[in-house]
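Quick illustration, no need to memorize.
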Amino acid sequence: MWMLLPLVALVACSNKNSGPSPAVHGEKIINGQTAAFDGDLSRSTVALVMVDADRTKSFCTGTLVSKDLVVTAAHCVDPLLSGYQVQVSFGSETYSSKNEGELREIERAYTYDMVYPPHGMTDAMRSINELKDVALIKLVTQAPKWAVPVPILGSESSLAADQELLIAGFGRTQEDQPAMSKFLQWTNVNIVKVEDRRIEVDQTKGTGACWGDSGGPAYLRTDKGLVVVGATSGAAYGDQDCHHNVVYASLPGFRDFLEKVAKVLGGEALVFTE
């Protein structure tokens, strides 16, 4: 879970009124390509930004799955649940001022563990808690008219090893360089395996997700358009780097949670597709 260490730094070095720390800066896709500003990726992929006065800083990524619902990683809503001001930024470019771009306030958010609280977790269960690293965000107002929600894959049976996924995010471009880019990036990776509501992808070929891409989408590109299948959780097996395998929460595996929470939040209905 790539945002956890930056979040610890934020809590330790700042209070809720002093604004976001530089430690929570987002970072982006390694060796990716810049998404077209008016393309389908930019219409459905969003950034989560910390807000202080009129300043904003992105730190995670998400996917628009209805006109007022965004799916992301559970650890990406930790700042929101801790009382920090977090908003959703639309478009392929992020800004340092909340007076620029398209921002939407967040009404509420639910993580998987908030709906299905863990009981009697063992150390082994805690070590794979990223399997529950999924959250749904309800916006106060609907997304911009030009934004396009994507359907969610309805069943994991449509996924298989070696299948290509398109991933996108506002994270790091170089693993050893914390420089921030304002623009949405994307690349292609291949599935290693799908099991236990997790999708593991291969990032050993020099391209993939990194810090700040947490919560961001793994898409299938189909003849009907983009279909989102996963939300970035973090490095597999505790590697804590961006050049080994990476784990995504499998959204088909969390279908019951997503449908239940969408109703509780009063959001526009989600669309699942095979």
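The radius of gyration is 17 Å.
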